[in-house]
Design goal:
Blueprint: H1 2-39, H2 43-69, H3 73-94, H4 103-123
Helix pairs in contact: 1-2, 1-3, 2-3, 2-4, 3-4
């Protein structure tokens, strides 16, 4: 019974950190949209901003996950980054986007999300 309770707590903590990462993502995307509206940013600047938002959100999610889990922080942070990417990929596929940037963009985003989460877990 004790092991099941620990597993439930880990899932709840993971959901909390992912929720925080997506709230941060939403807020930063709103700021990026405002900057795009006010300053007429180029497409490349917007793409860099979106990638930076992914890394920042995964970093913060991994940081929170590492703080909550106390042990093996970098693994939990990496798991948080991977789950962030998986949810992002599922939403993108469900919206009909597919692999709009190509396979290399898909893999690069996966690596950046995992690395951001792992770094956040290590810093925590």
């Amino acid at each position: 019974m004790e092991k099941g309770n620990v597993f439930q707590n880990a899932i709840i903590r993971m959901i909390k950190s992912l929720l925080a990462a997506y709230v941060i993502t939403g807020a930063l995307l709103l700021i990026l949209a405002l900057l795009l509206y006010k300053t007429q940013l180029s497409e490349s600047a917007v793409n860099v901003g979106i990638i930076a938002i992914y890394v920042i959100a995964c970093f913060l999610g991994g940081f929170l996950e590492g703080r909550m889990m106390k042990t093996r922080k970098f693994l939990w942070g990496g798991a948080s980054g991977l789950l962030y990417f998986m949810v992002l990929a599922v939403i993108s596929l469900a919206a009909g986007q597919g692999l709009s940037g190509g396979t290399s963009h898909f893999i690069t985003t996966l690596i950046l999300c995992a690395a951001g989460g792992t770094l956040g877990g290590m810093v925590s």
